[in-house]
Amino acid sequence: MESDLKRVQRVIVLGGGSAGFMAALALKKRMPDLSVTVIRSKDIGIIGVGEGSTTALTGFLHQYLQVPPKQFYEMAVPTWKLGLKFVWGPRPHFFYSFDSVHLTANYPDLRKPISFYCDADMECVEPMTALMAGGKVFERAPNGAPKFNNSFAYHFENEKFVSFLETFATNLGINIVEDKVEQVLVNQSGVTGLSMASGRTETADLFVDCSGFVSLLLGKTLQEPFINFKGSLFCDRAVVGGWTRKPGEPIYPYTTCSTMDSGWLWQIEHEHRINRGYVYCSSFISDEQAEREFRSKSPDVTQTRVVKFVSGRYERNFVKNVVAIGNASGFVEPLEATALGVIATQSRVLADSLATADRQIRPTHARYINYHHSAIWDATRAFIAIHYKYNTRIDTPFWQECREKTDLAGADDMMEYYRENGPCSFWGPLVVGHEDPFGINGYITLLLGQRVGHRINFTPTDQEMQKVSAIRQHYRQMAQQGLTAEQVLAAIRDPQWKWQ
Ligand SMILES: Cc1cc2nc3c(=O)[nH]c(=O)nc-3n(C[C@H](O)[C@H](O)[C@H](O)COP(=O)(O)OP(=O)(O)OC[C@H]3O[C@@H](n4cnc5c(N)ncnc54)[C@H](O)[C@@H]3O)c2cc1C
After folding, report:
1. Cα 306 to middle of ligand 1, angstroms
2. How many C-beta atoms lie closer than 10 Å to residue 42's C-beta?
């Protein structure tokens, strides 16, 4: 029997930031004969932050969209990010690696996974933290060239990234309209058209709302309720700035996140620039005080600007004929730099779902897109919440409040499991849920890093600790021979270099 649902022929994506172009590209790549138009206003502009990513973005770019690395590296000028360095909790610092699965690996002669031997020192028991600790990006192949692994993400300046996406979108046949939407036309089935400053009206079968925090179609027009995450995530502003990289300042292969009086500070590595941002809670510190504290830690910063945000999500992101992606659908503060990865996943889910449903807006597909939307944002909220709840590094009023009042949201089961079992990943996917982008190893890294206590009383033998030292020694040596970001940049710009 034929379905009586109409096939989507034409899609309008409202917004030309990272979300707008990523969504448009996913749709066009998956369904090349679909008509896709991006409408954006340069007067309104883009948010301009969003410089650190996760591995979900790397896979989306190079596998799903098949972005050619040569063009991407030339235009977006990224550097490589293997994870994060946290100046956080009681240890001097710890690393969170995108390949944290190694942290719970089993080795012969060790009775438990290696995570049980990390109480005093959790560095270099696996390859990725050894590379990060050594300031190296990739291992060196026998011919001296960098050996790219599958666990890296990128740092790039948001404007450069968006310009790259725009060029790629134009080449793929996506129509880009420069105009400002002034009125949204609606009926009981959803949005029927967008009326613009130029006087023209654009219509489509499906509207993808990528209008940023304003959420013009989903939030403002369709009035979808918003769920605020402020019970778990107290920060609501960032003061951002940076400086031109000076000779001798190394390009670190990670984002650094440091505890500040009323929040935390990021440091992101670009080839010629270092950018920083102090994410803070405006109930504990004024913009002027935040700027002072920021500059006291970052004397080289030139110009600054304040960005306001709210962490939370809309109840649903697919309502009638509108799907929201990116900040228009939800946002979780940038501590793990998750937004671009979530956008990549949302774009992929929408494009695959529409293609699978013969381009019809089927209620069951819409329902599962909504399920995915809530699961991914809620998992992100829970994971970030544990960073705040257990950071004992300093004792300011802000951090006291975080330790006392942070709502762990969905992380309670994980905490119960960890307290009872220690850093053991055995029941991982069932404990954290299949949609969780961080996985149980992500949790274990953060809990071990912050030295959160558990009830497993385990004392390694001397022989076991010797074995752990030998493992560390092995990875340190591998890292020592690895290549720095500067060396890899030189290698990929060598005329002899060939991308695989
Ligand atoms: C402080 C801070 C730090 C962040 N750091 C990171 C990070 O390190 N990593 C990460 O992954 N994410 C980060 N993010 C999030 C990230 O910046 C965004 O999620 C991402 O850039 C997507 O933005 P967007 O495309 O949804 O919105 P925007 O970039 O704001 O784009 C909105 C688009 O909609 C258009 N538009 C809006 N209204 C209209 C209208 N009426 N008519 C026409 N066009 C319109 C605008 O012109 C623009 O093109 C950070 C966010 C904040 C607040």
Report:
1. 14
2. 10
Which amino acid, residue 332?
Answer: V
Ligand 1: centre distance to CA 53 (Å): 14
Mean pLDDT to the nearest integer, 287-294: 98
* CB neighbour list of residue 74: distance below 8 Å, 6 or more residues apart: none
pLDDT tens per residue, range 134-191: 999 999 999 999 999 889 999 999 999 999 999 999 999 999 999 999 999 999 999 9
Taking residue 78's Cβ as centre, other Cβ atoms within 10 Å add up to 25
Separation of 224 CA from ligand 1 center, angstroms? 19
Q: Is the model's pLDDT at 254 over the cut of 90?
A: yes
What residue's CA is closest to ligand 1, atom 49? 16
**Between 158-171 and 69-76, two packed helices, what is the crossing angle to 10 degrees?**
140
How far is it, in rounded angstroms, from Cα 248 to Cα 302? 19
Pocket of ligand 1 (CB under 6 A): 14-20, 39-41, 44-47, 49-53, 158, 180-181, 210-212, 214, 216, 238, 277, 307, 309, 326-328, 334, 337, 339-340
Query: How many CA atoms within 13 Å lie on the side-chain side of 143?
Result: 5
Q: Distance, CA 101 to ligand 1 centroid (Å)?
A: 31
Take residue 417 and report the two structure tokens written for it: 């499991």
Distance CA 325, CA 137 (A): 31
CA distance linking residue 440 with residue 480, whole number of Å: 29
Closest Cα to atom 50 of ligand 1: 50
Distance 213 CA to ligand 1 centre (A): 7
